[in-house]
Every structure is written in C-alpha cells, then in structure tokens.
Inverse folding.
C-alpha cells in the first residue's frame, strides 16, 4: 500500500506535484455535548419499545414511561421532598464532616514527617474496609438515628479525601515553597498562601470521588432505621418487588450524582481560573 | 554591606561539591560566578542566602543592611517561581504581606517596582498570560519590592530565548545604573557574565574551587552586546574554562 502511495520504484515521481498526505489523524478525543444525550435517548427509546412490544416482560424491567409516571406521582404527592430533604441533609452534613477533617489530616500528613509516618499506614488500613460493614458498629456508638448515618458518610468520604489531599500537598511545586522561605514568609503564610492553593486542583479532583462514595453510603445508611430518605424508599420498593418505584429511586440517585458533579465542576472553574 | 566567605567547604552525602571557597561580595557591585554545569554554583548561592548550611567554613556579613530592607538576601530564580493563582500585583504583594506595612506604603512600593520594571499595564494579569521575559520581570519587581541588601540571581535568564535575554540584560543594566544594587549573578553564559559583572569568578568542575578571578574595569553602562573589550575577556574566560567544561561533560552523574 505504501509502495503504491509513494511510488518508490517509479521513475515518474520526479514530476509529481501534489499535497503531502495528512497522517496525523485521530488520538485527539473531544467532548461532543449532544452525544451523551443521544446515547441516553437511544437506550431509553429501545427499552420503551422493547417493553411495549412484549420483547421484555414487565417482570424483567419496568417500562420507562411507567417509571416517569411514578416519579411524577411522587412529586405531586409531595413525597419526593419528604424523601429528598432528609437525604440531602445527611449527605451535606456527613460529607462536610468527612471532607473537612480529611483535608485537615491530609494537609498535616503532607507537612509533618511524624504525622505522615504514623498515619499513612492507618489510612491505608482503613481505606479498603467496606464502610457499610461498619454500620452496625456505628449504630451501637451513635444510635439508630442521624448520628450513625452522619458517621458512616463522614468516614466514607474521609479516606479518599485524605489520600487525595496529601498527594496534592506532595505535588506542590517545591520551588514555590523555597521562594516563600527565601522571602522570609512565616510558616503559616507559606501553608495558607502557597501550599493550600497549590494543592487545590488535587483536592478538588479528590472531592469528586469522595462525594460519589458519600452518595453510595447515604443509601446504605438509610437502609437501616430510616423512615424517610431515598435509600429507605428504594429499600421499601425493593422488598415489595415494585420495580417502577425502585427505578424511580435509582433515577433520583443518578440525578443527585450528576448534580453534585456539576457543582464540583462549577467550583473548579471558579477556584482554578488561574490554571493553564 | 559586604559579604565575606572564608574557607568554605561543602559536602553532599560525603562527596565534596565545593572546596575552599574564599571570596568577598562588595557593596553596590555585581559579582558573576561562572563554571561548568554541576560545579556547585547554585549550591554556593543557596549557601550565601542561607537556604543551606555550609559543611565547614563561614559566611560573614560585614556592616549592616539598609534600614528599610525587608529581606536581606533575596533570590531571583531561573524558573521565576511566581504563584500562578495570583496576579502580577498580588505576586508582589505576597512578599510584603508578612511585614505589617500600612496599606498606602505597600501600595506605593508596588507601584514603584511595577514602574521600574515597566509592568504598570500588566498588574492584573495572571502569570499564565505572560511571556517568559515578562514573568522574569515580575520576579525582579518582587525582589526589588523588599529592597534587598544582596540580590542572589540563579541563572535568571537561562529559561529565556536569546532576544528576550538581551532585553532583560539591558533592563538589569538600567536598573543598576538608576540605583546600584549588590548582586551575585550565577550563570553558565560567558557573555552575560562579562556584561554584568564587576568581578567574575570562575569555578572548576566538581568539587568546585575558584580557579580564576577577573575584574572588569569598563563601566557596566558602557558595555554593549557587540563589544571588543568584552570579547577579549570572554575569549580569555573560555580558554580557562574549556578543558574544565569538557571534563565535566564527560563525567558520569551519580544522582
């Protein structure tokens, strides 16, 4: 093929006069905004058609239009907010505690040798524990009410935040710190004006992971001893094999996840304006 | 204020990087230090500024720094070391913030240094918007803002292209002529060394020791890019350095 393209053995190529072929195609993925919506639309349309035609029985999957109807009903009856409000509060309180303690500990690990040597193994030991397994323990410690739910979400979002934060602090450009020292900046100034802003990109990308884990644990926590909450709603629907309501609950969780992601993106755009 | 270095030796993990350095930095003069790569020039500069402790020997300050000096030994780095999240003005204000100056004083200091480095129109720009030469001007403005007793410049022009380098050299000269400052200028570039140095010190390859000291009488303001007198010095320096540089180039690095 190449032989043909370039005419290696031909004596005629002396007089050839044409454009150099462009060979730098591809390997440059870009985000096409409409493509995401399009894929969503196709999946839902296929499901709708398949369930309507009987190809998929209503026992296997609920009809998307029925799920939508369930959600509208949920909204109109006011039950949606009865479930959504306590869930959102749990998510905010739990994640706030976990993330703020996580950033603090992560920064300390990034700054002090003794704290680093002492805590990094502890964090490595806590990280892989499925936090859901600890829920009974938290119920004993903090009671069946809100306390145990906050604790579970906080612990779940704490570990990824710590790891992201101290990694980010480690990656702060040392020459900037050296510069701060050479100008006689105080320790506090160096931490607040150089280390923390420099670590912000890493901390914020850790935030995405922490918040996703927080949502997973929110549902898990609400499956035990919660009257209202998205998790409780899903659990109840699940135990009745009410697939429309189950899917309605799952959809709400997806939307919650997307919302959180959008909020982090907005935050990133605002805080990291300076980035190239 | 002068700085005097007596019998300084420095080791890294048992291997000698600087050997028996004796020199004096004179008030109001620029001292150029040149040497092959890896000869310990930058280490010497870090020692002078106190970012590292010498293994043996002493670095003495003779006389007192100017009263209004906020930071006696001030560096200008090769890679500028600007905070990318702060604007030009905020980068300069960074080094004043810890000194509890009244805000009008701070304001006037910032305006003065922006003016001297011709950065007035860029005070609200972020570093990512600036060219390399502009970034280094900001770093120079920041260094001038603390009114240093000694400016320690570590290859300040090495990250720039040669035209920008020439422009900044001219800026250094005019800044010095307007208000002479004391400086140590580390470089591996012979023409920069002879353009700016009142005195030039040549270091050998590792372990760095002083192999030559040259004084240049011609006033800094009269030196030019193409300058017969400087050419002589430059040729001379290259003769001294040539073999050292070749030997340094052939060495294996143990890092």
């Amino acid at each position: 093929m190449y032989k043909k393209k370039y005419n290696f053995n031909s004596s005629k190529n002396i007089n050839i006069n044409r454009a150099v072929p462009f060979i730098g195609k591809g390997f440059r993925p870009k985000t096409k905004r409409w493509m995401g919506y399009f894929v969503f639309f196709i999946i839902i349309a296929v499901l709708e058609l398949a369930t309507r035609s009987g190809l998929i029985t209503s026992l296997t999957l609920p009809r998307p239009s029925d799920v939508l109807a369930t959600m509208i009903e949920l909204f109109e009856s006011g039950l949606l907010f009865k479930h959504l409000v306590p869930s959102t509060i749990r998510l905010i309180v739990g994640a706030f505690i976990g993330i703020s303690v996580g950033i603090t500990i992560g920064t300390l690990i990034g700054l002090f040798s003794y704290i680093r040597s002492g805590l990094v193994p502890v964090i490595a030991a806590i990280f892989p524990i499925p936090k859901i397994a600890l829920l009974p323990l938290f119920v004993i410690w903090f009671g069946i009410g809100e306390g145990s739910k906050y604790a579970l979400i906080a612990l779940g979002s704490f570990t990824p935040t710590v790891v992201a934060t101290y990694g980010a602090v480690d990656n702060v450009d040392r020459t900037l710190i050296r510069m701060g020292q050479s100008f006689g900046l105080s320790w506090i100034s160096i931490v607040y004006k150089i280390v923390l802003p420099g670590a912000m990109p890493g901390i914020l990308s850790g935030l995405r992971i922490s918040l996703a884990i927080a949502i997973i644990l929110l549902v898990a926590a609400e499956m035990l001893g919660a009257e209202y909450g998205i998790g409780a709603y899903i659990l109840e629907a699940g135990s009745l094999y009410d697939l429309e309501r189950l899917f309605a609950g799952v959809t709400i969780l997806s939307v919650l996840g997307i919302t959180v992601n959008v909020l982090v993106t907005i935050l990133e755009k605002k805080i990291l304006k300076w980035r190239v | 204020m002068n700085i005097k270095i007596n019998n300084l030796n420095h080791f890294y993990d048992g291997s000698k990087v600087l050997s028996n350095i004796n020199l004096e930095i004179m008030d109001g003069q620029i001292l150029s230090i040149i040497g092959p790569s890896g000869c310990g020039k930058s280490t010497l500069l870090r020692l002078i500024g106190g970012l590292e402790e010498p293994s043996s020997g002493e670095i003495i300050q003779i006389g007192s720094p100017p009263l209004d000096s906020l930071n006696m030994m001030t560096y200008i780095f090769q890679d500028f070391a600007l905070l990318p999240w702060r604007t030009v003005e905020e980068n300069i204000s960074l080094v004043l913030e810890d000194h509890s100056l009244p805000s009008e004083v701070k304001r006037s200091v910032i305006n003065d240094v922006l003016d001297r480095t011709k950065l007035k129109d860029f005070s609200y720009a972020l570093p990512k918007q600036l060219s390399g030469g502009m970034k280094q001007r900001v770093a120079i403005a920041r260094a001038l803002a603390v009114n240093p007793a000694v400016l320690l410049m570590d290859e300040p022009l090495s990250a720039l292209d040669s035209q920008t380098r020439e422009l900044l050299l001219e800026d250094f000269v005019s800044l010095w002529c307007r208000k002479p400052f004391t400086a140590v200028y580390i470089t591996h570039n012979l023409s920069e060394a002879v353009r700016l140095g009142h005195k030039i010190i040549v270091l050998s390859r590792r372990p760095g020791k002083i192999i030559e000291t040259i004084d240049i009488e011609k006033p800094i303001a009269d030196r030019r890019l193409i300058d017969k007198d400087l050419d002589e010095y430059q040729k001379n320096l290259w003769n001294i350095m040539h073999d050292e540089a070749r030997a340094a180039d052939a060495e294996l690095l143990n890092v």
In short: Chain B has a mean pLDDT of 89. The helical segments of chain B are 41-49, 88-97, 103-116, 132-145, 162-178, 190-196, 228-249. Chain B has one domain: 2-249. Residues 2-249 of chain B form a domain with the Rossmann fold fold (CATH 3.40.50.300).
